[in-house]
Amino acid sequence: MKERTPNIVHSGLSGLVSRDDVTVEVFIYRLESEPKWSLEVVNSAGTSIVWDDLFASDEDAFAEFERTVAEEGMRTFLDNGNVIQFRH
C-alpha cells in the first residue's frame, strides 16, 4: 500500500502584513502529522525567507515574525542586493 502524502495545515494567522510602506505575505503552516509550525515570509519580489526553527504553536510563529519586525523593521524582508547566488 502506498503511503499518502500528508496534508498541509495553514494557520489563520497567515496573510498579508503591511507596515512602513512594505507589504509581505506571512505563511504559518505545518504538516497534519507534525505538531510544530513553520514560518515563512515572502516579499513582493517573491523572495522567500524561511525560519530554520519550528514553533510549538502558530501563535509562537507569528510572535517571532512580530519580534523580528520590532527589532529589524519590515525592510529586513526586502531584497537589498545581499542575496547569495548558487553556483550553476
Q: What do these coordinates show?
A:
- The chain is of the alpha+beta class and 88 residues long.
- It has one domain (8-74).
- The protein is 17% helix and 30% strand.
- It is built from 1 helix and 5 strands; from the N terminus they run βββββα.
- It has one helix at residues 58-72, and strands at residues 8-10, 15-19, 22-31, 38-42, 48-50.
- Strands 1, 2, 3, 4 and 5 form a 5-stranded antiparallel β-sheet that branches.
- Strand 4 (38-42) and strand 5 (48-50) form a beta hairpin.
- The longest helix is centred in the last third of the chain and has 15 residues, at 58-72.
- The protein is elongated and about 50 Å long.
- The N and C termini lie far apart (39 Å).
- The mean pLDDT is 90.
Spatial separation of the terminal alpha carbons: 39 Å
What class would the helix/strand composition place it in?
alpha+beta
Assembly type of the shown chains?
A: single chain
From the spread of the alpha carbons, the general shape counts as: elongated
Number of domains: 1
Mean pLDDT: 90
| Stretches with pLDDT under 50, minimum 5 residues | none
How many DSSP-defined strands? 5
Strand coverage percent: 25-35%
Main sheet specs: 5 strands, antiparallel
**Secondary structure: helix percent:** 10-25%
Rg, nearest Å:
15 Å
Sequence of secondary-structure elements:
EEEEEH
Tally the helices. 1
